[in-house]
Amino acid sequence: MRTWQTESATWRHGPWSIERRGGELADLAYDGRRVLRSVRAVARDRDWNTPTWQVEVLDDTDALRLGLRCDGAPLQGTLTAHVSGGALAIELDLEATRTFPTNRTGLVALHPPQLAGTALRARHPDGTAEDTAFPARISPRQPVLDIAALAWEHDGLAVGLAFGGDVFEMEDQRNWTDASYQTHSRPLTLPFPYELAAGAHVRQTITVTVTEHGPAAEPEPEPRIALVPGGLFPEIALGASTAPSTEFDPAPDLPLLGGTVLVELDLRTPNWPAALERAATAGLPLDVRVTVPWSGSDLAILTDFLAPHAIARIGAFDPDTHTTNAAVFDALRAALTHAGIHVPLVGGSRSHFTELNRNLAAVPDDVEVLAFSVTPLLHDTGTEQLLESVPVQRLVARQAVADAGGRMVLIGPVTLRPRFNDAAGAQLMSTRPDLADGYGAEFTGAADPRQGDDPLAAWTIAAAAALAVPGVAGLSWFEEWGPRGIRSAAGDPYPVAAVLETLDEMSAGELLWAETPDPHIWALGSRTAGRTRIAVANLDRRPRAFTIAFGDEQLRLFLGPLGWAVVD
What we know:
2 domains, nine-stranded antiparallel beta sheet, 33 strands, 16% helix
């Protein structure tokens, strides 16, 4: 599929190599050993949206020189990589063609997650040094501040980065399931947005130095994944569709899939009752997630609409922080008690793991269920970002379970792109009482062209295997139908629908899970009294052979690129 292929070209100079993907300098390597995940020029507008770059290759011989013009921001300039005195120098020169309010514009360096726990020395602009480490546990805050230079050792290389043109700091991007730590400029302690005046330049540099002090790591052997019992297989659910429907163009009649339907209701909109009623037509219990506009009467009205339906659980979230706090939780609990509705209450984040990680202490102790969603294509929409997020999803799931303290953990909706911009202010909402224009993500989110492609089936198996760790009780996926769904608006299934049907069937059994030795090969299984089923996926660009072990049995399998299979 073209949407799953990123055009790239390799630039080499001596021992250095760079994989150019559009305007991204990816997989910076020295003597074949990766030093950085990438270096990018980024522009973030006042709502933290990331416009894309139009890229022209100006020279790629002695220097890799790219002309950049921003699609969505008044910026143009050049990004250049060249070798000087054995060091790799990366230089950015951008000019604002008119005034541009921005939260961040400049270079970012992405460090690979394999550096977790690696010792790190940071040099500050005043010349002092700090010895620290790349965080092993996903850090809720910036792990390193006030950076002028960084140094570490990995894979037989001593690596140094020197930053020029601004003060930099590090952020743990694994919070958003990105496969990186990000070192960026414009410290968050400074006010934002700030203005780049017309004619202003952003000039920044990153200089990479490397010294060899040992051999490269040995190549990994053929993967062997040993599945072991992990408790109950997670419940599988779908998100309610947010796409439009009318009595003349109704929602499709679909077969049952999953244990619940997750429906997100914003009580500030006039059509949330219609969204609730349409979600209930699936004939499954509802997992209701409510954005509360701080009105007790609104919650009383909500309970009136909930009363006729089978409700599996319900959660409430602050519209500004997208998390559960004591005031939100108490208001919801009081309204439900008054209405005689007794169901488990959900807390945590309706947004990324980031918000749960940063605000865990604010979640009331008596919340019975912790929840968060997964949206890998927030900072970058490239397929590499999507595929590389899967191993990080495993880290996020394990940390959430550890932090839950024995409480049930639900993950989802899992969607490719965000359902809303959690950093923006007021966002578009429907003004109609019906669903003729849709609701929720139809206004505030984005669809992805890969939604209907066959490789998404492999990705979904891999993501399910990554997220289904012991302690995760449920996974909710995409939407029932529509542009963000597992079926079209007419009800025709996309390839991913078959995978979710299989995972739903597997949810009746015992979970078989594994620590995978390879970030591309994933498997999970389900065992009942008379049947064992195993779903496997290969997220590599090349065919792969591997072994699956469970109990006394072993299977050697072979899958093509972005391939998947279900084995009975």
